[in-house]
Design brief:
By secondary structure, the protein is α/β, with parallel strands linked by helices. The protein has a domain at about 55-200. It contains four helices and eight strands; from the N terminus they run H-E-E-E-E-E-E-H-E-H-E-H. The chain has a five-stranded mixed β-barrel with strand order 2-4-5-8-6. A hairpin with a 4-residue loop joins strand 4 and strand 5 (about 115-125).
């Protein structure tokens, strides 16, 4: 009755269904885990932003890699801006998705160590080889409050660390790289400045990271699982339809079947 399942066409169809089901289930779990990571990240951002600021030296030190648990922690740093070693970070976007640069200014702490401060976004110069117009950093001792971030890497950001760039321009924010240029000990990671506010709103300070939206990962997971459930259901429907069609075809070929009940009509000779 089901010998047709051994045909080449049905063997291929069955193998395809057998591959699709676990693949779709796995894709569903992949989206589900992305949903879980997004939820966990949102909670981490919200908790760290809400936490009271602490001195930056409590969370990082020269050569230190900022752990994910400390991302976006609010920290304070007191020192003097070293504008002579200020650099800009290329190919960064503003809150309105305009392409420009981030202004990275070293802050020399009271003990002589340095922490990098991302003061915000400004438009790039018309000539990509020229240093853009950057509003001056405050003079004298200042206390900066910012969100702590880890050093950027190509693997984490997807940004290539291009070589041969114009003077005082970089692609990634790296405390190790800047320590070599400055000739001082630089604390690992950097600060996204949130206070004091920039004069006249420039540089445009980095917006608080989104920690409300969770994306559509859960919906995608459910879709994949529904697809996985639909494959065997569709396979059964096709098998039953094939069986019915074959039975109907066999019945039409049997002598005395309803299709053969009519009497043959004799030809009437023409006059």
């Amino acid at each position: 009755m089901y010998r047709f399942l051994l045909s080449r066409q049905w063997v291929i169809l069955t193998l395809l269904a057998a591959v699709l089901v676990p693949t779709m289930i796995e894709l569903g779990f992949w989206q589900f885990h992305r949903h879980e990571r997004r939820v966990a990240q949102n909670a981490l951002i919200a908790d760290n932003i809400a936490a009271a600021p602490v001195p930056v030296e409590e969370l990082t030190a020269p050569g230190h890699t900022v752990p994910r648990a400390d991302y976006w922690r609010r920290v304070t740093a007191t020192g003097t801006f070293d504008t002579a070693h200020e650099v800009v970070v290329r190919r960064r976007t503003s809150s309105e998705d305009r392409v420009g640069v981030h202004v990275l200014t070293p802050l020399v702490l009271r003990d002589g160590k340095v922490v990098l401060v991302n003061r915000g976004w400004v438009p790039a110069a018309a000539d990509q080889h020229a240093f853009p117009a950057v509003p001056p950093a405050p003079k004298g001792e200042v206390t900066v409050t910012g969100r702590l971030k880890a050093d950027e890497t190509t693997g984490a950001s997807g940004i290539k660390d291009l070589k041969g760039l114009p003077d005082r321009q970089v692609m990634l924010i790296s405390s190790r790289q800047q320590a070599e240029l400055i000739g001082r000990e630089v604390l690992g990671g950097y600060l996204e400045q949130i206070a004091p506010a920039a004069a006249n709103g420039t540089p445009e300070q980095i917006a608080e990271p989104d920690h409300d939206s969770i994306g559509a990962h859960m919906a995608y997971a459910v879709q994949w699982w529904l697809f996985a459930a639909g494959v065997p259901v569709g396979w059964v429907i096709l098998v039953r339809r094939e069986k019915h069609d074959r039975q109907a075809g066999q019945a039409s070929d049997v002598p005395g079947s309803p299709q053969d009940d009519t009497e043959p009509v004799e030809a009437v000779p023409s006059p």
